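WARN  no MSA supplied for this record, continuing single-sequence
INFO  ligand: hypoxanthine
INFO  echoing inputs
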Amino acid sequence: MSDGRTMEKLRVAADFLRKLGEPRVAVVLGSGLGDVLPLEGERAVAFTEVPGFPTPTAPGHKGEIAIGTLGGVDVLVQRGRLHYYEGYSPEEVVFPVRTYALLGVRILVLTNASGGIAEGLAPGDLVLIRDHINMLGFNPLRGPNLDELGPRFPDMTHAYDPGLRAIAHEAARELGIELREGVYLATMGPTYETPAEIRAFRALGADLVGMSTVPEVIAARHAGMRVLAISCVTNLAAGIARGPLSHEEVLEIGRRRAADLGRLLAELLPRLAR
Ligand code: HPA
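INFO  complex generated
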């Protein structure tokens, strides 16, 4: 429940992580992207070691938190994430992000794998998320508001910070990495979508579809963090793709694009922290 006990649990988790450092920037690495960002002087803990943290179950998700430096700047890297489809409650899904807020993180960078809906997208494309459509069927802020973290009715107009997006485009340009922009639609999963659902989502204005990220963005915005999100298109969405979708394909494309994503993040994160 969202009550005093939740705040107390979050404080205990944040105090535990504070022993590893007090970064102002955190990045969450999604499916197949967990190995892209080694840090200097890295101190890492498994999710299972952090008091109050739920434990991850999905294949391809490691579930560790590392704090170290990148380009001279302290950063936190979360390798692997918690998904609603795994059975976690919405509150559990956003527990890590809220912990980072209490730790003092002000900028949250999220990465994920997605299916491409918009015309012209191809597997392997990196896309900056400009906005989202929440089709998860829940909002993680439901329940008594955690007033210490943020307001009851948070504004979502600039959920994906325009200033941070401009910095990301600049870094990508300098590195010669193509970075597109699009609207991400989140579904509950764990099924991939039907072709009819993808046609409907396209009509709604979605460019990308995936099963994560939106809960963390909502919790981060509630807590006043600035957010940037980068999606790796691992496949064309159902009905656009010629054949059936597979998790192995998603992981494989993610792994293939991980190097470029790692280069981009290594360039970008120190700039965001400045
Ligand atoms: N649909 C939903 N989630 C995804 C997809 C997809 O096509 N690809 C990677 N994650």
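Strands lie at 25-29, 40-46, 64-70, 73-79, 107-116, 126-135, 179-187, 208-210, 226-236.
INFO  checksum written, moving to next record
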